[in-house]
Amino acid sequence: KLFLVQQNLRVLPKKLVEQYADHVEELDLSHNCLKNLSWLAEFEQLRHLVLDSNRMHEAHLRTLTQPLPQLEVLMLNKNEFSDLPTTVRLIRRLFPNLQYLSLHGNPICPDGLELQPFSGYLRYDYEYYSNYIGHSLSKLKFLDHGMVQRTYQYESFPLQSYAGTQLLKTTSF
Question: How many CB atoms are located within 10 Å of the residue 136 CB?
Answer without folding.
Answer: 16
